[in-house]
Recover the amino acids of this structure.
């Protein structure tokens, strides 16, 4: 309403047009430009509010004003501003359409006119002889079909202005791609297809000419009526991969974004079939920078995920491009830039994921090119932690696939390798993936008891002693599968006990009544106690990191619900215990008294008071010896602390565990902890309590508190 009043009272549109014509400041122009576009939509709001159909006169005036703005910007050679005009038109148009659906009485869709003008500067990167390429000819025909004559004429004007004036087509094209990506959220699918096709054709023109001779000579073009000719050069002269890496990077990024968002298929956009080969050609180019290689590898990964060509869709075993990409990826796995190696491993992981169910033919590709043994070597020896982590992800995915395991991975001592990596690794991102690898090995492959015991010990350390929360959570997921495995051994199927099951112990089918189910559950819990799983769950339930607590609470609560379902909280009728039932008398467990803890603290305080005197009276050599001895004491204390933690975990019997979880409202416990973390720790009351506590305590340095 306010905009309409301004239009009626002060003739806002005419005043803004006057400013727009006179304005030469880029900073001011952007604001005037936006206001002018908004003024064009004022009449539409009235029609929408009154729920009337937009008449022909209003729509004609709208198109005339748009033509006026475009020609005015062209007269000043403001190509980027012209593209931004169409971006604003698309945004405001979609906003109005979301409020109320309306259409112009026009033959062509408005969004097609807007997007055609936005992509037009990119068309100037196309070689003249490329017009004979069949797919491009189809694309141009499609654009002509969806655009009106006025837009086509404006397109010729844009071309003429760019070619007559000394402007950087590569720079303009880079900005245009960025602007196009800004409106992907409001693009219809048919608009996205047009943008994707444009980017594909421009990328193909950036490729070095290996198959067809593309005319790179100067092209003469009629830019004026009459005999006079203007000679211009192809704007991406030379090798664009080397000369225009910024444009190429934007192209690859644009294709990746469009692919991830719209998941286009070759049936609706035939250019998708070419994308994989274009990315491969980039990777084979000796002058491609590491940045270009990383982006090309991302496009490869997305192309494999989304753009399977027809022959692979039909599960045909061989594909020329996949056969050719093998040596290329193998070579890039030895690239000096870690980003490239990391990206290659992401591509290989994608191939492994797809080969599991969707395209089994890829399994032979991974085996034939020796990627698995190279990944194991990279996980052991690569200098960069991100690359080692990616290699472990690829190996973890491959473990699930029988062909890859039987023919390659089973030859490596992966269980022992993973445990060694975990014990010696300093980077949390790698330790997390090692834990996941151990989990996959435990789930999908059979192991002797000694190896399982080694895995269990490593996972106890990971869940309880590791300093990074993601490692702990990954370890807890391992324990979740351990619980599931033991319950399955006792006959649990799909989350519940069947009425009858086969007993390995008695070698016959037995009926599962309440007593038998409770006996089996107790046996499973005893086995979990032997592996210290119950202690791990209870100690991680009190972890200092909330995410670890929450994960432990979820697993424990799920187990508690399952046990309550079969009334394990009710007493079991007197029956002889099974031979393999494990118990631990906690009266033999010796805990450290408070006096010994106090004596330990006094000893630490005394040591602290003597530090300054040691530094003053000791020479450099003696000082180094003293520091070394102190560090050895710290290591010894850390080791003792770990031993106490393991001792506590081993003290958790089945009875203690059941008593703890049945008496604890786990949801309330986690909810209270979450409320405390989100409110009390950052609230004014918390700060005030800290200040008052510090004030009341004497002989406390306030700087120690914050």
């Amino acid at each position: 309403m306010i905009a309409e009043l301004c239009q009626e009272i002060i003739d806002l549109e005419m005043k803004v047009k006057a400013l727009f014509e006179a304005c030469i400041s880029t900073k001011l122009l952007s604001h005037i430009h936006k206001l002018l576009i908004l003024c064009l939509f004022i009449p539409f709001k009235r029609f929408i509010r009154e729920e009337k159909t937009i008449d022909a006169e209003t729509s004609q005036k709208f198109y005339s004003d748009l033509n006026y703005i475009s020609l005015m910007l062209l007269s000043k050679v403001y190509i980027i501003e012209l593209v931004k005009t169409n971006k604003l038109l698309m945004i405001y148009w979609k906003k109005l359409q979301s409020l109320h659906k309306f259409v112009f009485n026009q033959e062509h869709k408005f969004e097609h006119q807007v997007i055609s003008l936005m992509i037009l500067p990119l068309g100037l990167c196309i070689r003249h002889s490329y017009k004979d390429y069949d797919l491009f000819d189809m694309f141009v025909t499609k654009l002509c079909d969806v655009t009106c004559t006025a837009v086509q004429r404006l397109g010729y004007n844009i071309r003429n202005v760019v070619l007559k004036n000394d402007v950087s087509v590569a720079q303009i094209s880079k900005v245009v791609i960025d602007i196009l990506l800004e409106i992907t959220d409001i693009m219809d699918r048919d608009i996205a297809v047009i943008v994707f096709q444009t980017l594909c054709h421009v990328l193909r023109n950036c490729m070095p000419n290996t198959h067809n001779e593309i005319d790179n000579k100067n092209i003469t073009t009629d830019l004026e009526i009459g005999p006079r000719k203007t000679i211009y050069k192809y704007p991406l002269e030379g090798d664009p991969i080397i000369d225009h890496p910024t444009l190429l990077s934007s192209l690859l990024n644009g294709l990746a974004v469009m692919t991830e968002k719209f998941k286009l298929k070759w049936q609706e956009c035939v250019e998708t079939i070419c994308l994989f080969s274009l990315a491969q050609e980039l990777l084979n180019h000796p002058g491609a920078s590491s940045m270009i290689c990383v982006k090309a590898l991302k496009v490869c990964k997305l192309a494999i995920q989304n753009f399977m060509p027809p022959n692979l869709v039909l599960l045909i075993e061989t594909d020329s491009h996949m056969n050719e990409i093998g040596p290329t990826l193998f070579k890039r796995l030895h690239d000096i830039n870690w980003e490239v190696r990391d990206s290659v491993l992401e591509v290989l992981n994608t191939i492994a994921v797809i080969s599991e169910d969707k395209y089994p033919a890829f399994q032979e590709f991974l085996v034939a090119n020796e990627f698995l043994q190279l990944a194991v070597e990279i996980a052991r020896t690569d200098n960069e932690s991100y690359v080692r982590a990616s290699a472990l992800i690829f190996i973890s995915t491959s473990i699930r696939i029988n062909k890859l395991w039987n023919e390659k991975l089973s030859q490596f001592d992966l269980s022992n390798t993973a445990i060694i990596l975990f014990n010696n690794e300093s980077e949390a991102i790698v330790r997390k993936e090692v834990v996941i690898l151990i989990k996959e090995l435990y789930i999908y492959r059979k192991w002797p008891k000694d190896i399982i015991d080694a895995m269990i010990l490593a996972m106890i350390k990971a869940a309880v002693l590791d300093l990074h929360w993601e490692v702990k959570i990954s370890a807890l997921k391992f324990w979740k599968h351990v619980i599931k495995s033991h319950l399955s051994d006792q006959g649990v199927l799909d989350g519940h006990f069947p009425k009858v099951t086969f007993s390995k112990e008695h070698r016959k089918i037995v009926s599962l009544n309440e007593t038998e189910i409770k006996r089996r559950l107790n046996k499973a819990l005893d086995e979990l106690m032997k592996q210290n799983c119950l202690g791990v769950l209870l100690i991680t339930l009190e972890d200092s990191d909330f995410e670890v607590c929450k994960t432990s609470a979820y697993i424990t609560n799920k187990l508690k619900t399952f046990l309550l379902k079969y009334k394990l909280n009710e007493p079991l009728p007197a029956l002889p215990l099974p031979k393999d039932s494990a118990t631990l008398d906690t009266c033999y467990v010796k805990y450290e008294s408070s006096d010994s803890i106090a004596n330990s603290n006094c000893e630490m305080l005394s040591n602290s008071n003597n530090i300054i005197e040691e530094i003053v009276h000791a020479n450099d050599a003696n000082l180094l010896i003293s520091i070394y001895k102190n560090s050895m004491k710290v290591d010894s204390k850390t080791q003792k602390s770990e031993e106490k933690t393991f001792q506590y975990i081993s003290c958790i019997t089945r009875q203690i565990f059941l008593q703890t979880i049945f008496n604890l409202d786990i949801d309330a416990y986690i909810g209270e902890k979450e409320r405390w973390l989100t409110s009390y720790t950052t609230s004014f009351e918390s700060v005030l309590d800290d200040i008052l506590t510090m004030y009341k305590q004497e002989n406390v340095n306030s700087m120690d508190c914050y």
Residues 210-227, 577-609 have pLDDT under 50 and may be disordered. The radius of gyration is 35 Å.
